[in-house]
Amino acid sequence: MTAHFIDRVARLDDLDALHRVMIRSITHLQTEFLTAEQVAASHKVMGLDSLLIRDGTYFVVESGDRIAGCGGWSFRETLYGGDESIIAREPSIVDPENGAAKIRAMYTDPDFKRCGIGKRIIQLCEQAARSAGYRRAELMATAAGVPLYESCGYSPKSTLQFAEIDGVQVPLLQMEKML
After folding, report:
1. How far apart, in whole angstroms, are the C-alpha atoms of residue 79 and residue 73?
2. Structure-model confidence comparison of residues 87 and 46, the more confident one
3. What are the pLDDT digits (tens) for 65-90?
4. Helix (H) and strand (E) counts for the chain?
């Protein structure tokens, strides 16, 4: 697929389209890595924290009138989880001198996988975080995201963790990178 991509900061009026991309991404791109039960449970632990849009730290990559992918970074303590997830928000601000920017809510529409969307969004996030004074970034990776993050220079910060959702264990890996 040859496509022309444009990136921009997400707006609140993008929310419906972003949610559709996230659902498609979780449903289709996690299946190589997770069981059907784990994919279903992932919908409850993953998602978009709309505070990222309000903070102006969430990006959209578009191809024509479609969102090909999205993702962001945060200067807040929350590491992962969306508005509807069971993960609690920690909205306090991370000091750039001592803490890490958080790379969050990365999703690619399955129709645009392997087109460089994820790497493009990571670069946008890292540039913005560096400009804000952060020297380190961290994230919570899904099994499907680990190869992308490793290719972008992230390495495991801890051992594999599991979020328990309705009795189903969903694997997650905390990763980090010096900026």
Report:
1. 10
2. 46
3. 999 999 999 999 998 888 877 466 67
4. 5, 8
Q: Where are the beta strands (DSSP E) in 64-160?
A: 66-74, 101-108, 136-142, 155-156
User: Two tokens at 155?
Assistant: 């390495």
- Angle between helix 15-29 and 36-45 (nearest 10): 150
CATH superfamily name and code, 6-138 = Gcn5-related N-acetyltransferase (GNAT) (3.40.630.30)
Domain spans, the chain: 6-138
Per the listing, tokens 């996030």 go with: 125
User: Is 142 within 8 Å of 43 (Cβ atoms)?
Assistant: no
The 10 Å CB-count burial string (b at 16+, else e) for 2-24 is eeeeebeebeeebeebbbebbee
